[in-house]
Write a structure and sequence with these properties.
The complex is a heterodimer. By secondary structure, chain A is α+β, with helices and mostly antiparallel strands. Chain A has a five-stranded antiparallel sheet with strand order 4-3-2-1-5. In chain A, a hairpin with a 2-residue loop joins β3 and β4. The longest helix of chain A has 8 residues. Chain A is globular, with a radius of gyration of 12 Å. Chain A starts with 11 loop residues before the first strand and ends with a strand. By secondary structure, chain B is an alpha/beta fold. The radius of gyration of chain B is 29 Å and the shape is elongated. Classes of the chains: A alpha+beta, B alpha/beta. Chains A and B meet through α1, β2, β3 and β4 of A and α3, α8, α12 and β12 of B. β4 of chain A pairs antiparallel with β12 of chain B.
Chain lengths: ~80, ~625
């Protein structure tokens, strides 16, 4: 599944970030910001209109991502 | 002491929100110079610093960057400068990489990337006080070993919080050549290296601050978050709109007094007129913007520093993105209701250049306070005061409609620009929401001082020059001795007004209106006083002018003309201060010309339709 499908406040780990097209600058930036394999992620809030954007905790940092951006991040839910 | 004639050059680099600018303020104090990098609108800040040895340093505060693989113009400048490739800029002798001790996971990665440039470098481990409060224990010696460069703890917001850094730099500079460098290192996986370093040198109880979690739960809540946002916005709007008014009145009165005093001393003539009506009045019209600009920027800087501004952008992003803007566009647009000049200046808080330009171009459509006197005059003269639908005051409804028309036009315009611009690429939000922190008084003061000076130096000059040009058009040639008409009628401006009357006839504007539009270029509200002048009324002040004008125009103009002029003022392209600010903030005559043209075209078309429809319906 991808980060855009992750329910609020659910612990998960990053698998990888997919390029939507060749040399996807947004995917590269996501990796630079810490969306790399094994990193813990969690959606901690979402915007008031249409659930956009998502507030994502990764590493020690919180980033607001639009859903199209979060859809690039493949994740794995932590075993319950 | 044989200090070299050229000071050593240091460059501060770091992720956004690492406290780099606060550290820069701490290092350089008030000895700063703010300008733009050649040919672009990215801000360049340089300051001077003196080490304990007496050596001078030139310190450059580079734009914040997440990576040396740039995703924006700011980051490209940072990369090129660090490498010493930026045209017109000397390569820095050493880099000071600033990292936030509470956010090492992200910031260390960038420090590793910077280290690979192979430049002499020192790491400033900033905000160690906040880290300690959160129970984060950092082994600086281990960090130093792992990074292979000196690491110094700093607290940028505390007095002497950077003195150890200064001493270390001062001791390090003479032996730069001997420093171990890390060029040609294998560009390994930075993230894996960061994890190793963290495991080795850092212990932390929790990954996030409890305060942040608690505040975000409320401030980003779909209901409470929006309510608190509305409250903050209301406070800002109220402050810019209301608190600035007494100061602005005071400034206007001060310059009026100065003008009168000068006029009393000098003999009447062109020189006295140039001084009083040109230079003094023109300077006054520049300075009068300062209260609004400073109050607005006080709030914006405080909100930005406290970490709330990105959160406001988070809450509003969806709504603004639908119109082709971004969450950060909201405050500039809101403050444009007071005046577009501070509003356009505050678009500097929008990082994405495309979103920033779109915001600048639609900001003039927000109904600024200077249009109110014109609206009040026309509504008072033409719209009967009666109650409609039981509860609403008809005059109030018309005023509301005018405001709403401005907002809708802005949305339509930004949506249209979104459809037609060439760059249709995905511009990510990717917005970091930093930890909440208390704004620091010195950083606010430095920021406000910079904004004020930027306005006075860069925008003030254009406004003053244009005001003097306008004075010339309005004053020459002088009326003949046997003049029967008001003096303005004989001036260049009067002739232009008469010539324009032909062009504006389809809109229902008579020649009196056309002439009044010309001095209205300086400031929209002047149009009321100018109308009074054209109708040869002698009025002591603006209120009296409006009162004397009301019966005249309500008999002299048709309803269609009045409606047409009201609609004209929704777009009102003729505010030279706004245009001057657009020129300065976009650094482009082309964008300014585009803004002027589209506002003018929209005003002309909308007024044309209004007038013709009104005439067809029998209001002519």
């Amino acid at each position: 599944m991808t980060l855009s499908d992750l329910p609020l406040h659910t612990a998960a780990q990053v698998e990888d970030v997919q390029d939507l097209h060749a040399n996807d600058a947004i995917a590269r930036r996501l990796r630079e910001l810490g969306f790399v394999a094994g990193e813990d992620v969690r959606v901690v809030a979402c915007g008031p209109l249409g659930g956009e954007p998502l507030l994502v905790q990764v590493g020690f940092t919180r980033f607001a991502l639009r859903r199209t951006e979060a859809a690039r991040v493949r994740i794995r839910k932590e075993a319950a | 002491m044989n200090a070299p004639s050229m000071p050593s050059r240091l460059a501060l680099v770091g992720n956004p929100n690492c406290g780099k600018t606060a550290l820069f303020n701490q290092l350089t104090g008030s000895r700063q110079k703010v300008a733009n990098y050649a040919g672009v609108t990215v801000e360049r800040k340089e300051g001077r610093m003196r080490g304990p040895s007496g050596r001078e340093y030139a310190v450059l505060d580079l734009p914040g960057a997440y990576s040396l693989q740039p995703a924006s113009l700011d980051e490209a400048i940072t990369r090129d400068l660090c490498r010493g490739f930026y045209p017109g800029e000397a390569a820095p002798d050493a880099l000071v990489c600033v990292i936030d001790a509470t956010n090492l996971r992200l910031h260390l990665r960038f420090a590793l990337e910077v280290r690979e440039l192979g430049k002499p470098m020192i790491v400033a481990l900033n905000m160690v006080d906040a880290a300690r409060r959160r129970g984060i224990a950092i082994d600086v010696a281990a960090l130093e070993r792992a990074l292979g460069v000196p690491v110094v703890e700093t607290v940028a917001v505390r007095r002497h919080g950077a003195s150890e850094l200064v001493a270390r730099i001062d001791a390090m500079m003479p032996q730069l050549a001997a420093m171990p460098l890390h060029a040609a290192q294998l560009a390994g996986d930075h993230h894996a290296q960061v994890r190793d370093i963290l495991a080795d040198a850092v212990r932390m109880p929790t990954r996030t601050a409890k305060v942040d979690d608690a505040l975000d739960r409320w401030l980003l809540h779909p209901v409470f978050g929006l309510m608190s946002l509305a409250l903050v916005m209301f406070l800002i709007f109220q402050a810019v709109y209301a608190w600035a008014t007494p100061l602005m009145d005071g400034i206007e009165a001060g310059f009026a007094w100065l003008g009168a005093a000068v006029a009393a001393v000098l003999p009447q003539g062109p020189l006295s007129s140039l001084l009083v009506d040109g230079i003094i009045a023109g300077t006054g019209s520049v300075v009068v913007f300062l209260p609004q600009i400073l109050i607005l920027f006080f709030f914006i800087l405080a909100l930005e520093e406290s970490g709330y501004l990105p959160r406001a952008a988070f809450l509003l992003d969806r709504m603004m993105a639908a119109a082709g803007l971004s969450g950060r566009s909201f405050i500039p647009l809101l403050s444009s209701f007071a005046c577009a000049v501070p509003g356009i200046m505050s678009t500097r808080s929008i990082q994405d250049p495309r979103d920033r330009l779109a915001t600048i171009l639609v900001a003039p459509l927000m109904t600024c306070s200077a249009r109110l006197p014109v609206y009040a005059l026309l509504i008072g003269a033409f719209i009967p005061q009666k109650t409609v639908w039981g509860v609403f005051n008809q005059q109030g409804l018309v005023l509301f409609a005018l405001y709403a028309a401005g907002i809708l036009s802005a949305l339509a315009m930004s949506w249209t620009m979104k459809k037609f611009r060439r760059d249709k690429g995905e511009h990510p939000l990717l917005l970091e929401l930093p930890s909440y922190r208390l704004p620091h008084a010195r950083d606010l003061a430095v920021g406000l001082y910079e904004r004020g000076m930027i306005f006075l130096k860069r925008v003030g000059g254009i406004i003053l020059a244009l005001t003097i040009l306008l004075w010339f058009l309005l004053s020459f040639p002088a009326a003949p001795a046997d003049a029967t008409m008001p003096a303005i009628d004989y001036s260049f401006a009067g002739r232009i007004g008469h010539a324009l009357a032909l062009f504006f006839a389809p809109l229902g504007f008579n020649w009196q209106i056309c002439i009044a539009l010309i001095p209205g270029l300086a400031a929209r509200e002047v149009a009321v006083a100018s109308l009074a002048t054209v109708y040869a009324l002698s009025a002591a002040n603006d209120d009296a002018a409006a009162q004397a004008l009301t019966p005249l125009i309500s008999h002299g103009w048709s309803l269609a003309t009045a409606l047409s002029l009201l609609v004209w003022y929704i777009y009102a392209p003729m505010c030279i201060s706004t245009l001057a600010t657009i020129k300065r903030e976009t650094n482009s005559w082309k964008q300014m010309a585009f803004a002027a043209f589209y506002l003018f075209a929209a005003a002309y078309l909308a007024s044309l339709v209004t007038y013709q429809v009104a005439v067809a319906l029998g209001a002519g």
